[in-house]
Amino acid sequence: MSPTRLCRLLLPLLAAVLLAAPAVHASFDEAFALYQEKRYPDARVAFSRLATVEPQDGRHRFYLGAIAMRRNDTDDAIHQFEQAVALDPNNASYHLELGGAYGAAASKASLMSKLGWARKCRASLERAVELDPDNLEARNGLITFYRQAPGIVGGGIGKAYAQAEEIRKRDYKRGSLILGQLYASERRFDEAFAVARELQAAAPDAYLAHYTIGRLAAESGQHLDEGEKCLRRCLELTPARDEPSHAAAHWRLGNIAEKRRNPAAARAAYETALKLDPNFKQAAESLTKLK
């Protein structure tokens, strides 16, 4: 084969390889683009090179930590996030993610080690809120911590309620939903209904406000007529991508029908939910139990 013909064959292959591989000296924007495109192995290579070239920039360590969390490599994530915090100690987002990594370590640790990781988790999340009081993700992380952790490491349901109220001041809808869920988790259904109704009055067409009342009715067995009315209103509205679907609304209608001891209506609701979403596990389980 002639050299010219060989070059013609190899050039397209070489170009494809170069396009697929991350740049040897990728900029932060290029590395971040790889991360956004979920090309995590390539992003990891790019950020690792940047961390070597620009060792004082905490952003590189931060995204290496985020990539490590996606690999479930908690040890590496903690190392990277700790490096990011050391480089930029006043960045609330870095403390938030480090707290999450500590929490993940606590969930995997032995009983004796859990307390240490839990204390680190709380300290990081509280520092994130101290640095940025409007960081709602950090406040919500603290709610989860306070609900689950024992008092010996700083847990406590009262602290969780206080954070929910702080979120509510800054984001009324989100805070109301979180506060209502806290009440429901303690079976304080009267308070949970009251919060949901306040949200419904403030935003009459808010899908999630109606759904929440329906869910509370289905879980508690209280205010079943109101709950059914709200769920049927949900079926007239369009849920956002991150909100429970119409299939979920039908499933909850089935729950209410069961509370009324009407198995035929419950079966019809569960079957409708599964028609809308054949992979709806809860509806399938409810239908199986009903049969």
Provide the residue-averaged pLDDT: 92
Shape estimate: globular
Instruction: Estimate the helix proportion, in percent.
Output: over 70%
Q: Over all CA atoms, what is the radius of gyration?
A: 25 Å
Briefly note the structural class of the backbone: mainly alpha
Q: Helical segment tally?
A: 16
Q: Give the beta-strand count.
A: 0
Major beta-sheet overview: none
Low-confidence stretches: 13-23
- Please give the oligomerization state of what you see: single chain
Helix-strand pattern: HHHHHHHHHHHHHHHH
Q: What gap, in angstroms, lies between the N and C termini? A: 73 Å
Strand content: under 5%
What does this protein look like?
The protein is mostly helical and 291 residues long. The longest helix has 21 residues, at 111-131. The chain contains 16 helices and no strands. 77% of the residues lie in helices and 0% in strands. Mean pLDDT is 92; it is low at 13-23.
